[in-house]
Each structure stands twice: as structure tokens, then as C-alpha cells.
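Hi Y.,

Following your request, here is the sequence exactly as I used it, all 155 residues.
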Amino acid sequence: MKNNLFFIEEMSIFKKIFFSVIFGLGIFFLFSGGIIYGFVIMGIAINFLMQKGVELDLPNMKYRELMSWYGIKFGKWKQLPDIEYISIFETKKSSRFRAGGGNATYISEVIFKLNMFYQRNKHITLLATKNKDKVMEIATIISQELNVQLNIATK
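Below is the corresponding structure, written out as C-alpha cells. Let me know if you'd prefer a different format.
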């Protein structure tokens, strides 16, 4: 394998557009004299536009936990620990929505997590997605590259 593998958390297009507009509003305030408001609004937008992820460099046995902002990635490279096995498991992700002062609505969805385990119970979470086929394909590639067992705990 020649290329690095990137795993960035998914972000909705609505969220990207909304906070990009907010960021632009912050720039407007910054240059129209509201320096404090501009920096505060830009800081909030930047925080919501940041995506967490992991990058794997399997040929060099390195990885980094990264933050990405519009494709610009930040993170420090670390030596990949001795991976004992890779695990895929099914779990539920719950989200809470509240409008006004009313009751909260909870929505649950099934997601699949891909973890690499080392030192018996420590792990690196690579991916959490709704796409089972995608996580299976990636897990198979990584387990073959690292020559480790793949454990699948899904229905």
C-alpha cells in the first residue's frame, strides 16, 4: 500500500454551509470595526467546522489523530503500536433534538465502529459510519496489511 488512509468524521452539507456563512459573517464584522465580535463569531464557526479523524501510514507504521478544517490537516505523527487485532462492532448513536422549551426528541441510528486494539484493551477508533460495506472493506484491507485477525461483531 502506497497511500495513507484517512478517516475523517462525517459532516452534513447543511452544517458545512451554515457555519461557512457564519465564518463569513465573522470576517465581515472583523473588517467593519467589530473586531471582538468578528473574532468570537469566527472562533465559534471554526470550532463547529473542525472534523476529527485518524490518518494511517501503514508502510512506515505510523498514525496520527488529526483535526481537519476545510481539508487542512493538523496532528502529530506517532509510532503505530503493536496491533493485536481489528474489531468491527455495531452500536447505536443517539441524538437529542429540542425546539424552544418543549420536550426533547431522541433519534437513534445504527452505526459501525472500526477499532484497532493493542496492549489487550487499548484501542484506536478509526471509523464510525452507517455504511457497513465501507467499514468491512477498510477493515479487511488493514487486517491484511498488518497481518492481524479481524473480529466482526455485527448482526
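The helical segments are 13-31, 35-49, 132-146.

Thanks again,
Q.
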